[in-house]
Write a structure and sequence with these properties.
heterodimer, A: alpha+beta, five-stranded antiparallel beta sheet, three-stranded parallel beta sheet, B: alpha+beta, Ubiquitin-like (UB roll), DNA polymerase, domain 1, globular, binds flavin-adenine dinucleotide, binds iron/sulfur cluster, binds FE2/S2 (inorganic) cluster
């Protein structure tokens, strides 16, 4: 690990101001992704601003009947919250499908959203990777691509956003609240939070440098059956090959997003409108224009079967 | 900074963070970069951190890069906690911080100012074993023993998580109380890898401590 200095910020605006001002500074939340990457020198911040004292660790009822989740709420606390379990079950299910109990106790809501890709070449600093070193090329294209993206990817990078929680947040139409160095706040719809990166795969989100996530808010509950199904190489403690987050209403309509397939949770509203027609109709529409390799082409039929299973569970 | 063999070289005696001791403490102390400071200082930065480990207060001066795991093992010589992967993948380094299990390899020591840390040594020692340690012995919950401290810290915390109603990936009903069924125990322990494959006996040891049979019913 490269040497760094460390401090704890006292207010969100102060944290944002420090990171915006100091080149090489980064926020540190749980540290379960950032420290992992720092050990491999994929990330090498020169200064860490620990955000644990900012008082962003509560889940509050919002005036619109929804919930406002502080950026520092741990994954375990969020998944176990009674209101989330009752009204936003897809979120609980997605969180507990990810990582391990130990990691979820440390991982935070904001850190989880910002976790970086698990592309094996991103992790191997000897390999070309446009995400890690812009302009160096992409060793994954034509390489070992079984885990990688099939839709929304580019000629510069075919990696996926690997997380589970954000796939559920996408079907729930969550909003990401931020503050910048000037103390100005804004709200980013989750649909616009993770970028389709095109030729700039190193820029992964809509956040400006130094912009701090303060909360993630959920609109009022929408009812329906809440399901999250994750397919992976072992039964637990592995990243998704394909996952499906869905909220299905009694009339068969609903919302659906896919994980493990794209640079962001993949939800196509025009495709989910076809839910009453079944999984094939939805997946054909949602994955139209997919660019698969021989190693990851299985993800499209797997997405269809996983969605079919989710639809069957919703009926049962 | 050089790594002292004797932890006492690291002890800070003043609350203001003035260092005393051997050559090891000659390293620079941290300069927080907040108040309009310029570029971060080059080279290793050290900081003071205080937390309690197994009920005893510890004051350390550490390179900021020191993980909680390395602070426990290399500086406090509590070598019960093991380093397997150092990347959050195996669970050998599991300790309990403020009642919650975490991977100590993916946490900086300086993140734990003021925290209460429990390691395997704090759960129980050979002359005074924790019920979970006794159950691991009774059920042969280990072979080589390398993963065992992490397994036991995790197992103790898992039973608390179930009592607190934290759901898992295999919980059918999210809103009801959680039950320590065999499936639940296995899923919740999936962050602890055992190269020797003692898994089924570990689940039995846990069920024993929870006082349940494999179906999670009161035995
Ligand atoms: C072995 C292993 C298995 C895993 N398996 C899964 C899995 O199956 N599914 C899954 O979804 N995840 C998985 N994860 C990833 C895990 O969910 C993330 O590491 C975790 O959610 C990151 O949260 P954190 O608080 O620790 O983030 P940190 O590591 O502290 O931060 C991550 C990033 O977010 C930035 N950041 C943090 N807080 C803020 C803020 N408030 N505003 C702006 N920026 C911020 C940091 O600067 C950093 O760049 C796994 C991780 C490991 C190590
Ligand atoms: S797919 Fe993206 S992350 Fe993977 S090597 Fe190519 S550029 Fe890097
Ligand atoms: S050493 Fe920490 S999880 Fe492996
Ligand atoms: S007992 Fe040997 S690794 Fe678990």
């Amino acid at each position: 690990m490269k040497a760094f200095t460390y401090e704890r910020a006292k207010t969100p605006a102060e944290a944002a101001a420090i990171v915006a001002r100091m080149p090489g500074a980064k926020f540190l939340a749980g540290g379960t992704n950032l420290l992992d990457l720092m050990k491999l020198q994929i990330e090498a911040p020169s200064h860490l601003v620990d955000v644990q004292d900012l008082g962003l660790d509560r889940i509050e009822k919002a005036p619109d009947g929804g919930l406002r989740i502080g950026a520092l709420v741990t994954n375990t606390t969020l998944a176990a919250d009674e209101r989330v379990r009752r009204d936003y079950g897809v979120l609980t299910r997605a969180i507990v499908a990810g990582a391990s109990g130990q990691l979820r106790n440390k991982a935070t809501t904001a850190g989880n959203l910002l976790q970086r890709t698990r592309c094996p070449y991103f992790y191997d600093t000897n390999q070309a990777c446009n995400k890690r070193r812009p302009g160096s090329g992409c060793a994954a294209i034509g390489g070992y691509s079984r885990q990688l993206g099939v839709i929304g990817v580019s000629k510069s990078c075919i990696a996926t956003y690997p997380g589970d929680m954000a796939v559920a947040l996408r079907v729930l139409d969550a909003r990401v609240e931020t503050v910048n160095a000037q103390g100005a706040t804004r709200t980013i719809p989750i649909a616009e939070f993770h970028r389709l990166w095109g030729d700039t795969p190193h820029i992964e989100t809509a956040l400006a440098p130094g912009e701090l996530i303060t909360a993630v808010s959920l609109p009022a509950p929408i009812g329906g059956r809440h399901l999250y199904q994750k397919v992976r190489d072992r039964a637990s403690y592995a990243f998704a090959l394909v996952s499906v987050a869905a909220v299905i209403q009694p009339d068969g309509s609903g919302r659906v997003a896919f994980g493990g397939v794209a640079p962001r949770p993949w939800r196509v509203e025009a495709a989910e409108a076809l839910l009453p027609q079944g999984a094939r109709a939805v997946v054909t529409r949602a994955f139209a224009g997919a660019t698969t390799s021989s190693e990851n082409a299985f993800k499209v039929p797997l997405a269809e079967r996983t969605l079919a299973s989710v639809i069957a569970q919703a009926k049962g | 900074m050089s790594e002292p063999n004797d932890v006492r070289d690291d002890v800070i005696v003043s609350r203001r963070g003035i260092l005393v001791g051997g050559a090891a403490s000659a390293a620079v102390s941290a300069i927080p970069a907040s108040a309009g400071a310029a570029a971060p200082q080059p080279g290793p930065a050290t900081m003071t951190v205080s937390f309690s480990v197994n009920g005893r207060k510890q004051d350390l001066v550490l390179d900021t890069r020191t993980t909680l795991l390395d602070a426990l093992r290399e500086h406090l010589h509590l070598t019960g906690t093991k380093k397997g992967c150092d990347h959050g993948q195996c669970g050998a380094c599991t300790v309990i911080v403020d009642g919650k299990r975490i991977n100590s390899c993916l946490s900086l020591a300086v993140q734990h100012q003021g925290d209460a840390i429990t390691t395997i040594e704090g759960l129980g020692m050979p002359d005074d074993l924790h019920p979970m340690q006794q159950a691991f012995i009774r059920h042969d919950g280990f072979q080589c023993g390398y993963c065992t401290p992490g397994q036991i810290c995790s197992a103790v915390a898992v039973l608390d998580e179930i009592k607190a109603g934290v759901p898992s990936h295999v919980s059918e009903n999210l809103t009801g109380p959680m039950r320590p069924t065999n499936m639940e125990l296995r899923e919740r322990m999936s962050g602890n890898i055992c190269r020797c494959g003692a898994y089924s006996n570990i689940a039995e040891a846990m069920a024993d401590v929870a006082g349940v049979d494999a179906a999670g019913e009161r035995a």
